[in-house]
Fold each of these.
Amino acid sequence: MKVLFVCTGNTCRSPMAAAVLNRLAAEGDLPHRAASAGLAAFEGAPATDESLAALRERYGGEPADLASHRAHRVDRADVDAADAVLAMTEAHRRELVRRFPEAAAKIATLKGGEDVADPYGCGGEAYDETLATLEAAVRDWLAEHP
């Protein structure tokens, strides 16, 4: 199953969520693969240093998914290729449905309507908290979509 995570800039939440899902899927030998995109991404921007640091601290080593990550603006090809599109906020979900109404059935929020806070510009502790939230939400989602 291909999962697309979507946030605003594609430098924090969605790439961290994709890295978490890819890590958990590999560890659990699950047939899932994640990608990420942003509604207003600046194409080619790297993941934030704080995102890299949060993953490095939580899992040890260099987070390969994020080290080479470059922000990408969500497009029809991304949505069409995904089996599930998981937004970080309800506002993101609504905008995705507005842009891609034919895909509405596979667009949801990662936390079932509850927003994942944006840590951008809030320092390392906020990124650690967001990563913990993402990991718990991804684990819950994987339990429902094995």
Amino acid sequence: MGNEMVLEKIIKGMKKVAITLGAGLALTGSVKATEYEIIRLLPPDPNCNSSESYCINDDGAILGTYACLDENPIRGVDPTIWRKNFFYKDGEFREFDFPLNATSKINKWGDILARNIVYKINDSKDIDINGIDLNNKGEVLGESVLYRNGKTIDINVSIGYYFKVKSINDNGWVVGYLIEDHHYGFLWKDGVTTRIDGLWKAYDINNNGTIVGQYEYNPPKLYPGLWKEGIAIQLPGGPGSANAVNDLEQVVGNTSVKARPFIYENGETTFLDTLIPEDSGWTRLYAASDINIKGQIIGQGYFEDNIYRFGFLAKPIQKPKTLTADSNNDGIVNGFDLAKLGNQWLEREDWYEE
């Protein structure tokens, strides 16, 4: 192919890039909120009228409990007649006989941490510690120790102060908070403790080292907060807490005012109750506790009335992808998109034809 023909095709291709960019300029700015299918976690037992979700792994498996409550429960009192534990995935429920609670965890391999026992497929192991968290390497975080390869490692966070651990990532890094005359979040990494100035409490850490929790601003007011590369920031949306972060840097939590769950991504906070589909049966969502790598969120809400509470699974609705000027889907049309689209046209000669 001669140089003149190549140049002509490049010019034609760039014209088409310009047309596409012109059509896509409206995308510049904030990203449109994702649409969700909000599933009620309702086990098949006909007596069940309440449920609670504890955690979700990257494969979409959820641990929780369900119960039969009194017909006229009193707020602030647990009128449970009976309670059972469940495992949920892809619409299927399975009951568990072993005890689960809010600290129970499941990793991507299906290993389940229930207090002092790790349950594996056709096996279980007593780890002789009170388990707080479990990572994808099978390491268990205890109240003051890390259980790794059959051995326990002391977590020497501080001397003379009480501390509480909350989460461990796949690198073996631990976060939590110190309880002194003042609260401080901390990061325990390779045996070295770093105080997280700005975070009153640290609740979760992803594999990138991003930490979320409560940001202290104008005490005693606490706001959802994020710490990354030595910098702590307050997330928008009002007082509350950031509870979990995934490796895509998506953060979920709740506000303390009117108890509204939110997701924070790309610099924007979206309240989940504004995304409830019409005629879904949900009257209010009030908590978001965990999010996995697929962007699936679990939490709590009220269904059809404000008496009985159920766990929910909010699954992002995947829409068919169309050719757009925003080639990397970051909500902004810029030079990166221009270069990527130009390469696409250069690779496909039929796109040059008029």
Amino acid sequence: MLRFRRMRTLQKFAAVHASVDNLFNAKRSLSSRPLFKANRAAALA
């Protein structure tokens, strides 16, 4: 966090990081393999 000189820059980074994390970090244990693969294909499309 020390590399951000302005709070606004940190907030923008955190917002983008959260959305990307939600998109690509699907909780594998919460879904079956076919459903997981379908969700991944939809996210990448």
Amino acid sequence: MAKNTHSEFSGRWTLITGGASGIGYACAQHLADLGSHLVLLDMDSTKLDQAVHSLAAKGIQAIGYSVDITNTQALENVQVALQEQGIPIRHLITAAGVLQPMHDINTLDQAVHDRVWDVNYHGTYHSCRIWGQAIAQANGGSMVTVSSITAMRPTPLLAYGPAKAALGALTSSLAVNYAPKNIRINAVAPGFTLTEALQEKFDSGQRDPSSIVDTIPMRRLAEPLEIAQAVAFLLSDQASAITGITLPVDCGWLAGASWATYQPLP
């Protein structure tokens, strides 16, 4: 996509947690095409450098900070550094997250459980707190948290699904809190999306792509760009009256789950 220099995002700064890969990097690329400047946060310093250099090679203003999203002080330090550089954040995307192995409640390791909650919920909570204040100081803007369809249906992901469900509750609550400050906040709930992480599971034999696709009415996985486009819509003025919602982007998986209890998907 060619860069749109007339977009409402042109010249505005968007901060993306988990911005070096997967859905986060897809959002970075798409927002860059729409003219946004970017601040990317990620634990993986190698991928972060590659992402920033790739965007810079296309003429995009991009800055990277290698931080663990669970380190609240590190997040605070990033915002202090941005203030010192005169960079006003107008949009936030919280794409940082970790998956979990499938386990029974009696075999799910507590450290794994707690890490999932620390990254997926607490990291998002503090990101919204820190950059919600920054966006308010910049006269308003918008935020999108990244939830999951596992928040809406029972799955064997006993830490991941509940943590993502908590994000939906947090997002709707913050929508009320931030509305007087001219900030909208929504969530996007991706379905099975062909990210590098999912492709690695296919390649290693941990997941069978055909068994997943057979449960999806559109008979395909979502592409990271499709999630990014939904995120950009929710951030944009096209969604100016929308706040506090969770938007599934799942190729119909949620609808198909209930249909399939009556008869096979068409």
